[in-house]
Amino acid sequence: MGTKYKRSIRHFLTDKDLQLHLLAQSLIYSLIVVTVAIGIVLYPLVSDMIQSQDLDRQYQAAQALIALAKWLVPAVIIVLALFMGHMIVVTHRICGPLINFTHTFNRLAEGDLTRKVNLRTHDYLKNECERINHMIEGISGIITRLMTDHQRLMVTLQDLKGQVSDVDTKDRFEAALEMIRKDAAYVSDTLSQFKVEDQK
User: Fold this and answer.
1) Which of 39, 97, 101, 182 gets the most CB atoms within 10 Å of its CB?
2) Domain count across the chain
């Protein structure tokens, strides 16, 4: 249990470039929002301090501004820290699956259909994971049928080779060729389910 916890903290930034980019953008946006909110809240006090002709009113506004600042600055720092902590967790739960997808896609590109996407309990992108795994299962099924059809074709060819030595009639030879044509048609049907780019 302790090892898993240490490992998860050590690898919390699974995709540092993407996560840090998202964190920086979120921090800038949240700073803008907080600045605007503080400006709206403090505007009446600052306005009284600058525009009022009454010294007592200016003094009261300044005192209120100082009192607010004592609480506002720590509150803003705490809120921003909590927000950034939350964003680290959120980006971790998104980037972790994306890295998992990338590893699976790399294996697919090598022709390995045995690897599936496995997400952790709290990861996001679970629907996408199910779709990718469903796609892998579909492709794997097609390839399996292709291999079966190919093996059947090879067995037929082997049988034909054995029959050639004792072929007496043209009819038996043509029947064997017809069996090969049928098996080749099965392989062709299976292959036609794939769409590939033209190789030039």
Assistant:
1) 97
2) 2
